Amino acid sequence: VFALGVGQQNQYCRNSNSRVSTVTAMVALSELLGVCPNGAWVTEDQAVDVLGLESKAGLKQKFNEGSLPHVIVEHGARVKAPPPYSSHAFFFVQSEGSSGNTPHISLLDWVKICQGDPANSETAEAIQKYSSLTDAEEAFKKLTMVSAIITSLPPGNAGSGDYRYGTSGGARPSKAAGGGDGDGDGEVYTRPDGTRVRRVRRANSAAANTTSLQG
Question: Residues 141, 133: contact at Cβ < 8 Å?
Fold first, then answer.
């Protein structure tokens, strides 16, 4: 039995035209990993909750500090996910002590599960890989209950450079060695369209420039 905490509520029912989801706003990390022991994809709001943080700003700060090596961030647009997933960033949350930039299941494969039918053999196989359960239909229900499957989303946005998509919260901003004219200094991040760019602040200018990185 996966009991949901007092005060939980559906955070995606505001759009009456959307397919109703049982996604809830408050799920403990232990509940999530109880169904997905290798980690689970969640929205930004859910990541704040399961990680015990107070706000999205706090989540971004933890990423910038490199103190969340067990959490990977990716954007739907970057992996060419279909709408509405293409308008959102998602976080792959693993047990503390885990690290690396490769989730157990890719964001795109996870989206296919969310949009799939557990009675379909391909979807059922993916569900079994994603969860610790062998019965695909039962697993789908429990995955939805703990927010590890999302069937409805509110309006999102195209994303920004707030996160280095495709990396974990243990990755630190890339900076060149000190000295020189500063052309190589600045944080490297990946835009949702896949373009890698570096924010550059030159010594003779108060404004920060953004330089595209090729390759």
Answer: no
pLDDT tens, residue by residue, 106-132:
999 999 999 999 999 999 999 999 998
Distance CA 110, CA 76 (A): 11
Alpha-helix residue ranges (DSSP H) falling in the chain: 29-35, 44-50, 56-65, 107-115, 121-130, 136-145
Question: Rounded to an integer, what distance in angstroms lies between the CA atom of residue 11 and that of residue 44?
Answer: 12
Q: Which of 54-90 are b and which e, b meaning 16 or more Cβ less than 10 Å from the residue's Cβ?
A: eeeeebbebbbeeebbbbbbbbbbbbebeebbbbbbb
E-state strands within the chain: 40-43, 68-75, 89-93, 167-169, 188-190, 196-201, 208-213
Q: The whole model's pTM is what?
A: 0.70
Contact 50, 42 (CB under 8 A): yes
> Diameter of the chain by CA atoms?
63
**What is d(CA 173, CA 184) in angstroms, rounded to the nearest whole number?**
13
